[in-house]
Write a structure and sequence with these properties.
10 strands; 2 domains; 42% helix; 17% strand; Rossmann fold
Amino acid sequence: MTLFAFQLITMGVCIWLFTTGNVTIAALVFAVTYLGRLTSSLFEITPIIRGMEQLFLDASNITDILDEQPEIKDSPNAADLVVKKGGVELQNISFGYADNKKTKVIQNISISIKPGERIGLAGSSGGGKTTLTKLLLRSADVSDGAILIDGQNISEVTQKSLRASIAYVPQEPFLFHRTLRENIAYAHPEATDEAIFSAVKRANAYEFIKDLPSGLDTVVGERGVKLSGGQRQRIALARAILKDAPILILDEATSALDSESEKLIQDALAKLMKNRTSIVVAHRLSTIADLDRIIVLDKGQIAEEGTHSALIKQKGIYAKLWAHQSGGFIEE
């Protein structure tokens, strides 16, 4: 019912009471004035009440999310991971997603990575490269087999200590709506300005940061919207450098960059990977051509393994991927 209709009905009732002699003219004027103000107030309050109802509903949904238990839990007797060398071993691992566990995305993969070794993962889209990195980070648990770091099964250590030992640079870096300084120091909040500046320079990010009006105190916007793709990637690398973890995982870190940005990031990656166990998922094969070893995945299995030159000579999957790319970029 609209405010006008409610007031019209009220007026009609009051006039009827007056004509029947039940109320005086003074009482009628008072009633009409009072009811008019009352109805106006009620109609003004209605949107507020509806807004509060929606607020309580949203709060209830948030509470449900907060109460939801994580799928991956630490075992009752989980110990902290202690990494002294950084060796990684995948022992006959397989994995299938919960909605279709019969179809294995990863099948019977065994890889031994020496401390400080730089490994490239190549293969067509959907081959299992990114899934493998998720298993290493324990974003999901393997269905079969085991993943060991320095001889310790990652399913038996705390997730906090595992992720503290790995620096992860995703294809799309996540930046907070905070300053560059806060974003870089996210994994190491106690870092000094000297350490942050050192990381920035090693990530080849100093040149563009010094040109910003507020420098490291520049707010980057939601998800780093105020920065270009190459700039966001270099900030992510600076974060990884500052973290200084013994193991590094890079997931297609240069897949969507221009050649100038790629060159700067390639140089920063070379510094970051030096003497550090590194696993690099490649979309541009040029990013892994100089690594110690390249593992080619096809349909969740290891299809080929070796150095870049050795794999080219084999004239297999890797050689075909290389031949079909432009400047080391795999065409979809």
